[in-house]
Amino acid sequence: MGIQKKTKHAGERKRFDIPKTNSLAAEQYRSIRTNLNFTMPDSNVRTILFTSATNGEGKTTTALNIAIVYAESGKKVLLVDGNMRRPALHHFFDISSRNGFSSLLMKKGELLDTVKRTGIVGLEVLPCGHVPSNPAELLGAAALEQLMAEMKKYYDIVIFDSAPVLTIADSKILANKCDGTVLVASSGKSDKQQIVKAKEALLAAKATILGVILNKHEVGKSRNYYEGYHSD
Q1: Degrees (nearest 5) of the Cα angle 190, 46, 39?
Q2: Sign of the dihedral through C-alpha 32, 28, 155, 136
Q3: CB 203 within 8 A of CB 230
């Protein structure tokens, strides 16, 4: 039910397996979903951004698995690849990224014709599309708000994967437009100063921070693989 990384041989694209629904990892993603629901008890939070301070902290895998567990709970979910610098979601599902999020922002195509089925009931994905030369300018256009409003018409939850917040402006723009933002930090990679800077950058962008997920933290068998979900 969740997505886990699989061994990659030289020259191959990334591949990912879906672990069993009763696996420890699957249960932890469900726990995060439950905590998110407690954090946003009303229905006003419909668009959620997942970001991190730097690259390689597991935000994309986390966003994907949270999208899966929301779909598992009966929600109609759209997962959007908002990382227009290093898009990755099309690799997870082995789908084309020729048309996608960037195309719709440039008024090329229609939302329901552009989204892709995933094979997971209730979950559809919007790949990045063509990587534009000016992502920040594209995200700053009025077309983004119009597109997000349309997404809310057809989906219960819209989850955005995005670029790291400390490297470029894209994530701050998306965070400002989304109803809530989740910051993913990797144990042993992110230091406290980076996490604090990422939080400050999001607050400066007037983002609503729902919480922080500590990823890749080694704990005992009786403890969560994800150390916890901490509300801001």
Answers
A1: 60
A2: positive
A3: no
User: What pTM does this model have?
Assistant: 0.85
> Residue 62 and residue 161: Cα distance in Å, rounded?
9
For residue 196, give both structure tokens: 């604090």
> What pLDDT, in 10s, does the model give residues 159-171?
999 999 998 899 9
Question: Where is 4: in which H helix or E strand?
Answer: strand 4-5
Radius of gyration of the chain (CA): 16
Tokens 């599902």 correspond to: 93
Residue 63 amino acid letter? A
Which tens digit of pLDDT belongs to each residue from 65-115?
999 999 999 999 999 999 998 998 998 888 888 899 999 999 999 999 999
Instruction: Answer for the pair 56, 189: CB distance below 8 angstroms, yes or no.
Output: yes
Distance of CA 16 to the CA centre of its chain: 16
- Let me know: does 197 contact 84? Beta carbons within 8 Å: no
